[in-house]
Design a protein that fits this description.
Layout lengths: L1 H31 L6 H6 L16 H11 L12 H12 L6 H31 L2 H12 L4 H5 L4 H16 L3 H12 L8 H14 L7 H8 L2 H14 L1 H14 L17 H9 L13 H24 L2 H7 L13 E3 L2 E4 L9 E3 L10 H16 L6 H6 L4 H16 L2 H25 L7
Antiparallel strand pairs: 1-2, 2-3
Length: 456
């Protein structure tokens, strides 16, 4: 336990140091290169003495968040940006009696993200310990998060830092069976980023899994009878309603504010379930199924390709090596002892393939208690991957995955640990490629995003 805390302390120090280095990097980059789009400086009217200090991390979507924080939702298209992050920045500004001006808002946003990032590291480390029972995996996975490909967005005035901290925390509390705390965090994720709605399926999964623990009869009929017990159904309904509270209140407020007048047919105010998000994404940003599949968008697909490849590898290799039909049949709700060439007991030591992602077996202490343990994480990551590839602006896939799923960091940890354990030329090549990808995207993010060039 002492060694684990010592490792965590070192990792948190690395996390804080990385924020300082990244901040200095964005400042240098912003001073060295002229912005591709200089309208930001005109619109925001920076304090001239500090115009380059924070401007590099306040481009692109940061402009919307800063506007919402200072002025509110003055335009309909801004409803695509959920309110939790700008609201917290606003409240923090009022608490310390700072003027409601853009520069001070940017300072608060920067300090908030500076605090949230180590918190996210802490929860990822603890979550990985629960899932893998391996401090080495937890350490390296968290280091991977510290240098993740979407790092610049976790520094910028975006909601990503807040969301990823909430995400790792709620998953940790789910694994710890602290469902009330998890429900509170799900509420906040839903009003931080719209894809937080997906977290409701984590809640359903873990409640079902907890209910089915210790059942000896794992037939489908018995499982159905178990989960349809009245007491459990009521409990599940209460948790679900509690998890949607803030999300519903936000949309009631939006509807009552923006739908006072009549709108043409097809406007979201006239929908049976008036959710503005889908309408705004479709009409203002041309988001929709396969809408992005144009030749001119090929560079954006290339930008997102590495994270696609990582997740596809994680999914395919895990399913191939860990009895996929059994996992799909029971939706990862039942723990099965898998005994094949990749998993067996040798002198009380489990021979496993870390997360099923590597081609060589490695001896380690019960790193994965059961393949079904990570099934729900893989399904979640796959849903995000398929949605990003087909229905969103594909270039946001990297930051969406990096701020929503621990799978990419477990993949990172798996590849690095495999290299240390096997030292084969294959593992060395894969590890080098992965490190190059992570570091390259950190550098490119600093130079491009901070100077208002298109980035992920």
């Amino acid at each position: 336990m002492y060694k684990m805390h010592k490792k965590l302390d070192k990792i948190l120090r690395v996390a804080i140091t990385s924020r300082v280095v990244l901040f200095m990097g964005q400042y240098v980059s912003n001073c060295m290169f002229e912005d591709f789009d200089t309208s930001n400086s005109i619109t925001l009217q920076y304090n001239k003495s500090f115009q380059h200090v924070l401007s590099g991390i306040n481009n692109w979507d940061s402009i919307y968040f800063n506007h919402i924080t200072t002025t509110g939702y003055t335009y309909e298209q801004m409803l695509a940006f959920m309110p939790a992050y700008p609201y917290i920045v606003t409240m923090a500004t009022k608490l310390i009696y700072l003027p409601n001006e853009v520069f001070y808002i940017q300072i608060i946003g920067f300090v908030l993200n500076l605090f949230l990032f180590p918190m996210a590291c802490y929860y990822l480390f603890q979550l990985t310990i629960l899932v893998s029972n391996d401090t080495n995996m937890a350490s390296i996975a968290t280091i991977g998060f510290i240098f993740n490909p979407a790092n610049i967005f976790l520094m910028s005035s975006y909601s990503e830092s807040f969301f990823v901290c909430l995400q790792f925390a709620l998953l940790y509390y789910m694994e710890s069976k602290s469902y009330f705390i998890a429900c509170v965090l799900i509420n906040i994720t839903m009003i931080t980023r719209f894809n937080g709605v997906i977290n409701i399926f984590f809640l359903i999964h873990y409640l079902l899994k907890h209910k089915l623990e210790g059942r000896k009869d794992n037939s489908i009929v018995t499982l159905l009878l178990t989960v349809l017990e009245l007491r459990f159904v009521v409990k599940l309904a209460v948790y679900l309603i509690a998890s949607f509270t803030l999300f519903i209140l936000w949309h009631v407020y939006v509807y009552s504010t923006y739908c006072k007048q009549s709108y043409p047919t097809g406007h979201w105010c006239n929908w049976k379930i008036p959710l503005s998000y889908a309408y705004i994404q479709q009409n203002y940003w041309n988001v929709g199924f396969l809408r992005y599949y144009e030749l001119k968008q090929l560079p954006n697909f290339v930008l997102a390709f590495p994270v696609m490849l990582l997740l596809l590898r994680a999914l395919s290799t895990h399913l191939i090596n860990n009895r996929p039909l059994e996992q799909i049949k029971y939706l990862g709700l039942i723990d099965h002892t898998v005994q094949n060439k990749y998993l067996g007991l040798i002198d009380h030591t489990v021979q496993i393939k870390y997360l099923g992602l590597i081609d060589h077996t490695v001896q380690n202490k019960a790193m994965i208690k059961s393949p079904s343990r990570i099934f729900v994480y893989l399904v979640h990551a796959t849903f995000l991957l398929m949605s990003g590839m087909t229905s969103f602006h594909v270039q946001i896939l990297t930051r969406m995955i990096c701020s929503s799923s621990p799978v990419i960091y477990w993949t990172f940890g798996d590849v690095i640990l495999q290299y240390f354990n096997s030292r084969t030329s294959y593992s060395k090549t894969i590890a080098k490629l992965l490190l190059v990808y992570f570091l390259l995207y950190n550098v490119l993010g600093l130079v491009l995003h901070c100077n208002f060039y298109p980035w992920t």
